[in-house]
Write a structure and sequence with these properties.
There is one protein chain. By secondary structure, this protein is mainly alpha-helical. It is built from twelve helices and three strands. A three-stranded antiparallel beta sheet has the order 1-3-2. Strand 2 and strand 3 form a beta hairpin. Helix 3 packs across helix 5 and helix 9 crosses helix 11. The longest helix is centred in the last third of the chain and has 28 residues. It is flat. It starts with a helix and ends in an 8-residue tail after the last helix.
Length: 222
């Protein structure tokens, strides 16, 4: 029978799908439910597209903040961090711990593994510049910890869920991605985004200076 935490989490996620918005926990659950509720949100396997948002969102939520720093809950925060980074290796390393700590998660291990692999694909796209998003099957296989002959199916799954957009090239064994679903970013990812925006601004300024020197008439009024 579903637990109180699972029922609350599932209802929350379903409501978010209907309203087409990213789910948030609007009230802080009782202390005895906090850990279970965060975990149960990850087991709603019939809401795979939503998982790509809600796991990331919870990283900055006060429920998770309440768990950080508590040794007995370190495994759960590490698990959420692994999902956020699409870190399949860390997810697998933690499996003995979260399987023992949370039977609800252990019962959906295969579904969770698929989801972290999909997040690994998203992370590979996100970390690249827009002009450099043609990724080899081999790189995707390494990131998602799958065989190269399984990459095509994994990417097709990501495409079908609307997590990414792009085209598969079976001959050259590459995927040309054109878009990745917006994500909730942690501090490290925000810092990376800040650096990339800074690089972009530098290039724009260099291009503007070049135009002002070679074709100043094009910049009149700007």
């Amino acid at each position: 029978m579903p637990t109180q935490a699972y029922t609350h989490a599932s209802a929350l996620l379903r409501k978010s799908v209907i309203q087409r918005r990213t789910p948030t926990l609007t009230t802080l659950p009782p202390p005895n439910l906090a850990e279970e509720e965060v975990g149960c949100c990850g087991t709603a396997q019939d809401l795979t597209p939503v998982l790509m948002h809600h796991v990331l969102l919870q990283l900055s939520h006060r429920v998770v903040d309440a768990l950080r720093g508590a040794a007995e809950h370190a495994w759960l925060v590490e698990l959420l961090d692994a999902f956020n980074a699409g870190n399949v290796g860390k997810f697998s390393d933690l499996r003995p711990t979260w399987s023992a700590k949370c039977p609800a998660l252990a019962g959906h291990a295969d579904a969770l593994l698929l989801k972290v692999r999909l997040l690994a694909v998203m992370e590979q796209v996100f970390q690249r510049q827009a002009k450099d998003r043609t990724i080899a099957f081999g790189d995707l296989a390494t990131a998602a910890n799958v065989a190269e002959d399984e990459v095509e199916v994994l990417v097709m799954k990501a495409l079908s869920l609307g997590l990414v957009k792009g085209t598969l090239d079976q001959i050259d064994q590459v995927v040309a991605f054109t878009w990745v679903q917006p994500r909730v970013l942690d501090k490290t990812q925000l810092q990376d985004m800040h650096v990339r925006l800074g690089d972009w601004l530098t290039k724009v300024e260099s291009a503007t200076q070049l135009m002002s020197q070679t074709a100043p008439e094009l910049l009149v009024g700007h």
